[in-house]
Structures are given as C-alpha cells and as structure tokens.
C-alpha cells in the first residue's frame, strides 16, 4: 500500500479543483508543480511556478498576460494643468509603440485573483492602470505636443496605460483551461491514478504534451458566440446561437454536438433549480457536477469531442442560456 502511494499521483483531485470555477487556482497549480518535480518535467514545473510566484521582468510572458491598453498623458502648460489626455499609440515611434500597446501582467495568480474580486464588486470603478516610467516621457513628448498644439509650451509630466479590468478575468480563465486540458489529456493516457514509473517511460513525449497545452492550446473567441479551439488537439468549431432561458435551443445545440438525449434531459431538468452567479459567471453545484460528468465522458471516449474543447463548449452553451 505504501509503495503504491509513493509511486502514484492522484490526478482526479486536480481536475475537481479546476472544474470548479469558484475555487482558487493555487491548489491545482501547487499539485501540478509537485507532479512536474517528481516526474522531472521542466516545462510543467516552470509554468506552474511562474503562475504561482509571478513572472520575472526578464521572462517570456505568455500572450494571455498582455492586456490591450490606451495611453493617457498629463500636460503642464504654464500655470495650467491638463490631466488625462488620450494619446494614440500609433503616432509614437516604433521603438515605444510595442511597449505602450499592452499592460503586461507579471503578478502571481493569487494577486490576480484578488484583483479580480475587487474588479467584480458591484458598482466597481476600479481600472487597470500602469504608470509609465519617467524615463520614457521624453520619447512621448514630441508626438504629444504635435497633437495637442498650444501657444504655450506644453510639457508631458506623467503618463499611464489604462486597460479594461474585465480582461484580467481572461488570465485566470486561460490558465484554468490550459491546466484542465493538459490534465484531461494525461488522464486519458494514464488514468486518474498515474503510476509514475509508467509515466516516466514516456517522459520526452509527455514533455511535448505539457509544452503544447501551456503555450499553444489557448481558446480564443472571434465574434458573437464563436468557439475556436486552437492548437494540435483542436477538434471543434461551433457557432452558439442560444437565447437566454431557451431550453429548446440549449438542448438542440448540445445534442448536435454529441451530448446524448438522456444527458441533455438531465441538464434541462436541473438548470433552473439553482441560481448561477452572473457577476463571476459561475454555475451552481448541480450544473457544475453535470459538467464534470460530461467532461469525464469526453475523457473516456463516450463523447466524441476533443478534451480541450469539451469544457469550453459546455461553459459557453450554458453561459449563453443564463445570459452571461
């Protein structure tokens, strides 16, 4: 019994944490970091450690941690101050445009989760702000004074990037999706109780799987209701047209994408028995449990949908029904 415990990693606990959107990402990240260390998987260890501790300034930041931004500057003209004037980034020199196009989020996942709690508060007026270093102001000055002409010499005294705070939610959603897709893929190959000796026999190939999910298997949305699951494991493209509260459209869509009539009927029966959380876009326990069961069927081959796409397809469809 002891030997099995020492040489077995229980993946089911990780998946249960990931499928519950209300739970912090810290626990599954810590568990997968441990798994990466005991299996000597450098990619998984580094990825989870960066998300746990935060990325260093000189590290390669994932694209999902770059949030589109607008540039605002403060002017001083004689005795008069002119704060918060928007400056089009496209007018700046090329060497500074790239820096000002995005706010780069280096913080740990715990800090991001805490920020998201503030951003999601009712009537929240929090904005995502990044003050530009003072040494960059001289590079902004020439274009700013050309755009905002004045008879009095105008001096740029400050500048900041402003981003949409709701985009911060996309960071945690992408990390959760990446980890879930990877975990489901590994569960499909090795089961929920992974024998480490068997796993390590294919270490090099498994490293490639980890790298793929952590860097290229992100989910992007284009237009209203389009799901495109990118990466080598992509198996589904769908246009979701489900009106809020329309059970017929929801049932039709699920069955068109391989959910059995019995499983669809089960969801239709329970979906209105509990209230979702529209602010955090999370479902109640019964709907979450049903979703777990469906993803389990994707793993077992009982639902012919790629694992990485399964969770997103369900989340998008149910979210449309709830009006998220």
TrEMBL record:
Domain (AbiTii): residue spans on this chain: 10-209
Pfam families, A to Z: AbiTii
InterPro entries for this protein: AbiTii
Taxonomic superkingdom: Bacteria
Name under which the protein is recorded: AbiTii domain-containing protein
Lineage, uppermost ranks: Bacteria, Pseudomonadati, Bacteroidota, Flavobacteriia, Flavobacteriales
């Amino acid at each position: 019994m002891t030997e099995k415990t020492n040489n077995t990693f229980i993946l089911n606990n990780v998946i249960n944490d990931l499928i519950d959107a209300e739970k912090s990402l810290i626990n599954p990240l810590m568990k997968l970091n441990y798994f990466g260390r005991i299996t000597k998987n450098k990619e998984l260890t580094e990825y989870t450690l960066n998300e746990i501790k935060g990325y260093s300034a000189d590290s390669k930041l994932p694209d999902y941690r770059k949030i589109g931004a607008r540039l605002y500057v403060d002017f001083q003209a004689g005795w008069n101050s002119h704060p918060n004037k928007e400056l089009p980034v496209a007018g700046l020199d090329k060497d500074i445009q790239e820096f000002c196009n995005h706010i780069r989020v280096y913080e740990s996942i715990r800090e991001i989760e805490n920020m998201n709690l503030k951003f999601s508060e009712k009537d929240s007026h929090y904005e995502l702000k990044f003050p530009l270093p003072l040494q960059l102001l001289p590079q902004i000055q020439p274009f700013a004074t050309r755009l905002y002409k004045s008879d009095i010499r105008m001096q740029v005294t400050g500048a900041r990037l402003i981003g949409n705070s709701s985009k911060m939610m996309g960071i945690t959603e992408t990390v959760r999706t990446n980890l879930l897709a990877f975990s489901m893929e590994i569960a499909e190959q090795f089961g929920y109780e992974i024998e480490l000796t068997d796993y390590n026999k294919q270490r090099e190939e498994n490293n490639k799987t980890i790298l793929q999910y952590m860097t290229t298997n992100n989910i992007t949305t284009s237009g209203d209701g389009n799901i495109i699951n990118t990466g080598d494991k992509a198996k589904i493209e769908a246009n979701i047209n489900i009106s809020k509260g329309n059970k017929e459209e929801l049932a039709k869509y699920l069955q068109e994408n391989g959910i059995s009539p019995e499983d669809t009927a089960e969801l239709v029966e329970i979906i209105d028995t509990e209230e979702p959380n529209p602010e955090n876009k999370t479902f109640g326990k019964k709907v979450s449990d049903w979703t777990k069961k469906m993803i389990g069927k994707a793993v077992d081959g009982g639902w012919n949908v790629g694992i990485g796409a399964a969770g997103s397809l369900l989340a998008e469809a149910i979210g449309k029904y709830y009006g998220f």
